[in-house]
Amino acid sequence: MSYAELDALLRSWVDARDFSGSVLMTQAGEVVFEGSYGMADRATSTPVTPATRFGLASVTKMFTAVAVVDLVSAGAVRFETPVVDVLPPGRRPATLLPEVTVHHLLCHTSGIADYCEEDEDSPAYLEDYGSLWERIPSYSIERPADFLPLFGDLPPYRQPGTQFQYCNAGYIVLGLVIEELSGRPFTDVVQERVFDRAGMTASGFLRLDEALPDVAVGYLPRSGPDEPWRTNVYRIPVVGGADGGAFSTTGDLDRFLHRYADGTLLGDQLDRVLAPHADAGDGFFEGYGVHLYPDGRYGHGGGDPGVTVIVNRWPDDELHVVVLCNMEDMAVEVRDEVVDTWRS
Fold first, then answer.
1. Disulfide check for 322: which of 70, 134, 185, 250 has CB 3.0–4.6 Å away?
2. Contact between 144 and 87 (Cβ < 8 Å)
3. Superfamily the domain 3-343 falls into
4. For residues 192 and 227, what is the distance between their CA atoms, to the nearest angstrom?
5. C-alpha to C-alpha distance for 78 and 250, rounded to whole angstroms
6. Cα Rg for the chain, rounded, in angstroms?
7. Which of 142, 171, 167 is nearest to 157 (CA)?
8. Which residues touch 268 (CB under 8 Å, ≥6 apart)?
């Protein structure tokens, strides 16, 4: 398939499958394919453009990890530091085991209970993240500490270091660590230590209740073509946190991948960040806030109500693919079509 045919396929999905999103593929810093599809705001018929900022869901964990690594490089903390040595009792889970370290949180081996369990085999599995906010006002979740009542009293699943289990709550605790060490709000630290240093001028932690330009509204799936579109404003926290919810563009995320790989953000810690610290199964491993794929690429994906995104780098080919969608369940499929076209 040619790139023109790829573009035509994605445009056909706008009508046939309600596809809406932005796509960018670069190689060695040169744009190979770029496209914008569907509506950023369906109420005003505002189309998606390369400047559109999308919610990133769990891709945000890469930023959190970079901020932690930067604090380690500055000597503020060590990867082996027990979290109880950093966070006072009122600013950490009451059930946090003293053996849990910063390292365990970064690579999802802490064993702490999650507030939103993504493991389908877990008895605490929650299929619909959005249902959390039916009993807790989403507008009340503005800082990492606001999440603590959701998991802070739950018993740990297991001793740290014994098993990989993806854990959103672990990254909330890392957000608390960042705030404790810096004395500043988590979002301000990431803005300074990640976005500003990487040249990500369009990125930030944007509030859902604030009118801002170039922002994609997240849309929930419809039960039928005649049903109204509904936004995700009541299905995710009003502002993103350490485990998810930042906003960015495809161009900014391409810049992030470059600055991630060239040492600007991680310095001499890149090899440690990309080391296979935990076996995630099926050939996947976990670094520090980054998924290591069986085919040699790395990156992260994310899904929230009204959001699916994927950000990948193939280091051997210097290939980046970023797919951002303000709707659910299509980012990986789009990524695969883009990569298959490049390989053909």
1. 250
2. no
3. DD-peptidase/beta-lactamase superfamily (3.40.710.10)
4. 42
5. 32
6. 19
7. 167
8. 73
Coil, helix or strand for 312? strand
Encode pLDDT of 297-318 as tens digits. 999 999 999 999 999 999 999 9
What number of helices (H) and strands (E) belong to the chain?
Answer: 10, 12
Strands 30-37, 21-27: pairing kind: antiparallel
Domain ranges of the chain: 3-343
Both structure tokens of 29:
């810093």
Mean pLDDT computed over every residue of the chain? 95
Alpha-carbon distances of 339 from 34, 312, 323, rounded to whole Å: 12, 11, 11
**Nearest in space to 257 (alpha carbons), one of 307, 200, 214, 201:** 200
Q: What pLDDT, in 10s, does the model give residues 40-92?
A: 999 999 999 999 999 999 999 999 999 999 999 999 999 999 999 999 999 99
Rounded to two decimals, what is the model's pTM?
0.96
Decide: 1 and 339 in contact? Cβ < 8 Å.
Answer: no
SS3 308: strand
Residues 274 and 289: their CA atoms lie apart, in Å, by 9
